Amino acid sequence: MNIRVLLKRSVQTSLAMGAFMGALWGSIAPSWAAPSENYTWKNVRIDGGGFVPGIIFNQKEADLIYARTDIGGAYRWNSATSSWIPLLDWVGWDNWGWNGVMSLATDAADPNRVYAAVGMYTNTWDPNNGAILRSTDRGNTWQATPLPFKVGGNMPGRGMGERLAIDPNRNSIIYYGAEGGNGLWRSTDYGATWAKVSSFTNGGNYAQDPNDPNDYLNKIQGVVWVTFDPASGSAGNTSQVIYVGVADTQNAIYRSTDGGTTWSRLAGQPTGFLPHKGVYDAVNGVLYIAYSDTGGPYDGAKGDVWKFTASSGTWTNISPIPSSSSDLYFGYSGLTIDRKNPNTLMVASQIAWWPDAVFFRSTNGGASWTRIWDWTSYPSRSFRYTMDITEVPWLNFGNSNPVAPEVSPKLGWMNESVEIDPHNSNRLMYGTGATIYATENLTSWDSGGQILLKPMVKGLEETAVLDVVSPPVGAPVYSALGDIGGFRHDDLTKVPTSMYTTPNFSSTTSIDFAELQPATMVRVGNLDSGGGIGVTTNAGGSWWQGQNPPGVTSGGNVALAADGGAIVWAPGGSTNVYLSTTFGSTWTAISALPAGAVIEADRVNPNKFYALANGTFYVSTNKGASFSATVTAGIPAAARKFKAVYGREGDIWLAGGSSTTTYGLWRSTNSGASFTKLASVQEADNVTFGKAATGATYPAIYIIGKVDNVRGVFRSTNEGASWVRINDDQRQYGNFGEAISGDPRIYGRLYLGTNGRGLLYGDSAGVVSSSSSSAVSSSVSSSIASSSSSSAVSSSSITSSSSIASSSSIASSSSSSVTSSLSGERCNWYGTRYPLCVTTQSGWGWENSQSCISRSTCAAQPAPFGIEGSGSSASSTPLSSSSSVVSSVVSSSSSIRSSSSSSLSSSVASSSSSSLVSGACTYVITNEWNNGFTAAIRIHNNGNSAINSWSVNWNYSDGSRITSSWNATLSGTNPYSATGLSWNASIQPGQTVEFGLQGTKGTGSASTPVVTGTPCQ
């Protein structure tokens, strides 16, 4: 089964789109999220690597093209750079399934509008229902309408379509064909609300395998496409004639002639097959339909192509090879017509593995056809095309010596979407299971010439990353990928020349290198015959295939001793874990370990291996010959990720758990004899290490997890004492983190694997803010009294669109006052030492305060979180007159601004007693781009009782407009109002609630209005 089916994750249902509720830190900490650091994220170039079931051209505007993928989101074509722009990277952890795009529609009447039906699975693998996303700026920003059923962007039948269709005459009307027997749905308000079309009663009845025990092939594939007759309406008025295709072999085609009020089965229609594609030729009044005997995309052995003439109601079989012929071994899909010459049409084999796909072309409405290749004298063929894969050379799939009649590269497979550009008869694009191909000289076919096919996939990164390693020397990173094996990436900015070969896995499931001999590597993966193992001693320059132990059906996971002298392999399908000390030529079963255990090697001691299975941790001290259980309780049974730290023997970090059990991050410093759970991390799903920060001796730690109630990617430079978020809400990548690796050579670099958005790498841009996506500015006044009767007044403010700066000054009446930077004074805050004078830019201090934190405030924290002065031990010495006058400036570059209706005044005595009275509402710009922005409003309760049923208001004076919101109910338009949801309407003392906004800017930079309302008093 394709790897895209197997990668699944169960999470708690949430419709949050990148927002979060502030954490309650109790009495010793302010309530905001972990600091964040600006990071630049780019893809390690692979170009493609996954199924593209839909390519959608806008019928009005040239070069406005979209592509939808089954697990990697949606893309828009950028003709200026000849590359694709990802549009759904904001999809987060809780709604990860929205990266499965079941259908997409672009509006010909208003090209700025685009719609997407999203959801990954219709079974239990995806806990969330689907949604219809809508955009008025070509996918730069989106609004979502949840559906009352699931959507299966990675389910069988996902290549049929398009299920979303916009009325070409009245573009406020949109139809969606649902799966699971849920019928036909309609929106009359540009996709904001949806209702089931009750008069359309056939929701489909076809499931590929109704008895599938895996709960995947047994789902009804539903209503599969909708198309209109534009001539049946006029601009601004509803189109009257609508055609609908249904996954029902006996009742597949329906028509409405009254604008969707009533529907009837088209008389005389063919039966026995499923209608993959329906394309209407408005010039000639003809509906073309491509049929196959299954829903695809992996199967299909028979089918036909039919033509329905609307004026006469006649059906004509125009199949290039009819289903009655013994020469047919595939079904049809990939149907398209040339809108400039509508008698010209093309259709493709839906799936034809051998010797290759077949494309057919007709210039007379299907009366006759030519093929993209023909048999001559077996095994020879003649070709109407040539292929140039120079830009993506791995598309030969490692086959440099094909045996006729096969060629390399192939045209592809899973050819559901074949599209002639409606604005350019010479351009054809089509999707495969691995890429997008295109030609710019399509009409050469008709004159007896050859068309030139090239990949048109730059920027569309769709691999599922199963493992990744970054060794200390050689190539910076090695990937283990689903469907296309994986690569040695010598240059992150260039497409690799070839995937791994000998063995050539369909999917590489695990890879490792010997820490002390990094040129020695091992990888395991899936072969047609089961699983396999590959070994190299020259850093992947060449590989050889080892022998398999008994019972291997898939790759499983593997670990290599630090010196390369032993391999421990837990293969899929086997009842044992195995050891080899002969580079995989012989194997010995390890009886102490359960099948499927996760294996890792110590990165220093070549005699040590570690294993984890069902909440039990195991250790070997004899090079894997035997293992002993060391920890049998306290580790969650769901934990599947742990790593040993390079350069430190016996130092192990373990991540995992679930929302219904123990969840978090654990550490062992004694080779797994015991583990300690870190209080600084709420949840963790993977952990890795990279080069230490300047001045640090311990490697940087990276986790995929939750810190301070925020889900994201985090880094620690102090052994987990504190964390900085290094992704943001616009870069969440859905289901990510199955595979991650720090770079041991470049500080701050993380390789981040995703399930459908490829392999990314992040580098620090060096700017740290106080929260996950924003910094807070406010005005502050304070007075400090000490035993020497010195006093000081401080004020600070921040207002900048491109930088965040804070300045503060303290004046004293003391005759002995001096000016000092207090450079030697530092606070120990949960193990991290910060300068005594810090602001929220540094991630320390009250949420709504930019003032310096005084010495007495620091000293008031419970031990050991006191003051350290000039390297001396902790002290709570009050300020003396010699240090009562301070001048300091803190600045950093940022694109984040805020306004606040809050103020803070405090009086702090040398005994550390204090009182706090403050306002509580802050508006924060979290991101902005050309004409859009995201923002957050934070409501903090500084009182002694709960705030219930809160409501806040704000107004934009520059014409800004909100397009979507999350974690609140939004109403009104300038002024806007927001109220809490059921789970965040009550704010307890000390807590912060945050909700998110997305909008379009008015004039200039995004504005920061003042927030008012009862909680802001």
UniProtKB/TrEMBL annotation:
SMART domains: CBD_II (SM00637), CBM_10 (SM01064). Residues 914-1017 form the CBM2 domain. It comes from the Bacteria. SUPFAM superfamilies: Carbohydrate-binding domain (SSF49384), Oligoxyloglucan reducing end-specific cellobiohydrolase (SSF110296), Type X cellulose binding domain, CBDX (SSF57615). Residues 826-855 form the CBM10 domain. It holds the Pfam family CBM_2. Keywords: Carbohydrate metabolism, Cellulose degradation, Disulfide bond, Glycosidase, Hydrolase, Polysaccharide degradation, Signal. One of its GO terms (molecular function) is hydrolase activity, hydrolyzing O-glycosyl compounds. One of its GO terms (biological process) is xyloglucan metabolic process. Its EC number is 3.2.1.-. Residues 1-33 form the signal peptide. The keyword Disulfide bond applies. Belongs to the glycosyl hydrolase 74 family. This is Endo-1,4-beta-glucanase/xyloglucanase, putative, gly74A. It comes from Cellvibrio japonicus (strain Ueda107) (Pseudomonas fluorescens subsp. cellulosa). The gene is gly74A.
